[in-house]
Amino acid sequence: MGKGKATVLFRGKPLWQIQLELLRKLEPEEIFVSTRTDPIWRPADVQFLADDPPSRGPLSGLAASLARMRSAHLLALAIDMPFMTESYVRYLCDQIEPHVGVVPKIDHRAEPLAAIYPREAKVDFREALAGDDFSLQTLVRRLVAAGKLREIVVKEQQRKLFLNVNQLSDLAAL
User: Fold this and answer.
1) The Cα angle at residue 90 between residues 10 and 151, in degrees rounded to 5
2) pTM score, two decimals?
């Protein structure tokens, strides 16, 4: 994109602000932002977690968040999903169980950056970082098989919630 996604404006607001406003509506115990360097836009009440080098992208950030969190579950929400809604995230929260999180699934593909992970997945993330397959899809399949995640099928009318901004041309299309 030529610059960090978080600062890209969507409907007059930077993506980071859109997601942070959504998360705050849920009144979480704590909020983390995970990236390689501490972003200048990060509000003081949001904790920064550095990706441990070498960074493995979202896998590193989720692992760091799971290791640091105090709650029983971690809600992961990508910065580049501006259509995600409070009602859908609350729906996901209502689907979790003790020691079991949820991951939305569209067709045969999981949406691991709009998912809720149980604290118990911390071990699995650490093992994935120590291996040579850093795919979140692979890890999610293992977590589902182990009973730590349950798949939630995304209905046709909900698919737009998962549209993301990966390139400047995506903004024009959205």
Assistant:
1) 100
2) 0.92
Residue 113 is predicted with a pLDDT of 97
**pLDDT band, very low/low/confident/very high, at 4 (cuts 50, 70, 90):** confident
Q: Tokens 């994109």, residue?
A: 1
CA distance 104 to 149: 10
CA distances from residue 166 to 75, 101, 159, 174 in whole angstroms, order as listed: 21, 26, 17, 11
The residue segments making up the domain with residue 58 are: 5-173
Determine whether 166 is exposed, middle or buried from the number of CB atoms within 10 Å of its CB (0-12, 13-18, 19+).
Answer: exposed
Question: In which residue are the tokens 């093992």 written?
Answer: 127
Q: Give strand pairing partners of 14.
A: 9
What is the domain-level CATH number for residue 61?
3.90.550.10
DSSP states of 85-153 as a string? -HHHHHHHHHH-BTTBEEEEEETTEE-TTEEEEEGGGHHHHHHHHHSS---HHHHHHHHHHTTSEEEEE
Q: What is the pLDDT of residues 102-157, one digit of tens each?
A: 999 999 999 999 999 999 999 999 999 999 999 999 999 999 999 999 999 999 99
